[in-house]
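User: For my dataset I need records formatted as: sequence, then structure tokens, nothing else. Please produce one.
Assistant:
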Amino acid sequence: MNKITKAVIALAGYGTRFLPATKVQPKEMLPIINKPIIQYLVEELIDSGIKDIIMVTRGQYTLESHFDNNIDLEFHLEESGKVEILKELKELPKKANYVYVRQKKHLPYGNGTPLIVAKNLIKDEEQFVYMFGDDIVKSDIPATKQLIDFAYDHPQKIVLATQEVKKSEINKYGSLDIAQDNVTVRNIVEKPDIDKAPSNFVSFGRYILNQDVVEQLDKRMLGKNNELWLSDAIAQFTKDDKVVALKIKGQWLTTGDPLNFLKTTLTYAKDDPLLWTELKEYINNI
């Protein structure tokens, strides 16, 4: 099995739940403390050994600029003696090969569509990471590294990241039917009715996929709400025991809506003792 060094990040949404803040900037550029959401994802990939990062966008140039050098800013920081942040900003563009591909409007809507866009950048038989742009995982071992290590132990398999959610939330995700070995996925049901979900374990925005999944998606077989769902494509491979799931160790944080975005921000604020002390005092006094 070849090393997994490529990743695709889906960033082509409209961020409608954050309008008007996302009218001219992608949702993934909203900051968690002092770092945009997308940088948390990219750093996770880099720390997991990923070298090539393909971002499927709607042409959001701020994303591209963020992972490029800003000569004027760097000069200002150098003149101001702000050495540490200058070093960080200069190093980020060097840490991976960033590729940007625009998702065209004629393609179907859905979380599987970015893979059709990136199809020609994925080699035959190549395994790669697929990541949703609004899921952060706070963990000691990067979630992507956990998945990659697991994939090496299960060669030629499609690998899903999973965690358990409350039964009341199961209709927001793809529910997994997992065999007694706690690994093999027998089926995946996208956004099921709560009383019809196979389990409370769901797949979330981390996958190890291959060209076979991309080819299945490229058949443009639309599912629930007339969307192109990744889970529908993956479900086709469960029939041959080609799909496995790993229970990720860490805290899965979603940022796709204002409430969960604020929860994620508070979670990261706790890492800064001074910031958290003053913030907590302010919250208690509101």
